[in-house]
Design goal:
The complex is a heterodimer of chains A (149) and B (115).
Chain A (H helix, E strand, L loop, with lengths): L1 H8 L4 H9 L15 H18 L1 H11 L3 H12 L7 H27 L6 H26 L1
Helix pairs in contact in A: 1-2, 3-6, 4-5, 6-7
Chain B lengths: L11 H27 L6 H9 L1 H29 L3 H27 L2
Helix pairs in contact in B: 1-3, 3-4
The chains are: A mainly alpha (149), B mainly alpha (115).
């Protein structure tokens, strides 16, 4: 019926709505093939860094608590921080990774806040600010990492 | 005329705003704490303890923790909504996330007010 109406009345009304619903949309779900522009990487890294920080919250709170706890807890804190596997200070390296995650999330978040306020939404400026986010978060990670190592 | 289905719990705008307000609180606290830590007289545990024992720092730190946990709730819930389709699994994940975050808030409070 709808098809019939459509053919009589031209492309409008019910038939158009139906074709819009039934139309097969192309799916490009091969993650390895998708080439993201830099702002896309900033966006997905914002999510990845957020997940990493969330999952490590218990570790971070425990270390924070131990650093302010009794003498015993402080000893435990120091031993944990110094813990290494095959000469690699794995806890400190994890914290360095989380520092990067925090700083990336911080910088990318400020960029998103500015985009919300329509600052730098034009493509060249949005690309430039994505580079700034990547660069500043890495530089700050190195600087704060060296200062607090 | 297009008929729109009015679906959803209408928490979209509220959470969008909450995500930005909590982010701003955390950003200000972060800059404040980086400055305070870098201007400590010495980089040792005694100085760190004195810094965290200050009543304003305690208050600000707890506020930061609450902002962080609300921010994490909105962000993690969005991730579950994006990737987890079965409603029962999603509900369980939502509840577990909420319980964990409420527990963390209590944990941070005991750390701060033990000082």
């Amino acid at each position: 019926m709808a098809r019939c109406l459509g053919s009589v009345n031209g492309v409008k009304g019910v038939s158009m709505a139906e074709t819009a619903v039934k139309k097969e949309r192309p799916k490009h779900l091969n993650l390895a093939q998708i080439r993201l522009p830099l702002p896309g990487y900033v966006s997905i890294l914002h999510r990845v860094s957020g997940v990493g920080l969330f999952l490590c919250l218990p570790v971070l709170i425990a270390l924070f608590g131990a650093s302010l706890g009794s003498a015993e807890e402080l000893e435990c804190y120091r031993a944990t921080m110094a813990y290494s596997v095959l000469g690699l200070p794995v806890v400190k390296l994890l914290l360095l990774g989380l520092l990067w995650a925090y700083l990336h999330h911080f910088c990318a978040g400020i960029r998103f806040l500015l985009l919300d306020m329509h600052v730098g939404v034009e493509l060249p400026r949005a690309r430039a600010s994505a580079w700034v986010v990547m660069g500043v978060s890495l530089v700050l990670t190195v600087v704060l990492g060296v200062l607090t190592w | 005329m297009v008929k729109r289905l009015a679906v959803g719990a209408h928490y979209g705008l509220r959470d969008w705003l909450a995500q930005r307000v909590t982010a701003t609180v955390m950003a200000i606290y972060t800059v404040y704490m980086v400055v305070r830590v870098l201007s400590l007289p010495a980089f040792d545990n005694a100085a760190w303890r004195v810094l965290m024992s200050g009543s304003f720092t305690k208050f600000a730190s707890f506020l930061f923790a609450l902002a962080l946990f609300y921010h994490a709730w909105v962000g993690v819930r969005d991730i579950w909504m994006d990737y987890v389709k079965p409603l029962s699994v999603r509900l369980i994940l939502h509840v577990m996330t909420l319980l964990a975050l409420v527990g963390y808030a209590g944990w941070v409070a005991t750390i701060l007010w033990r000082l």
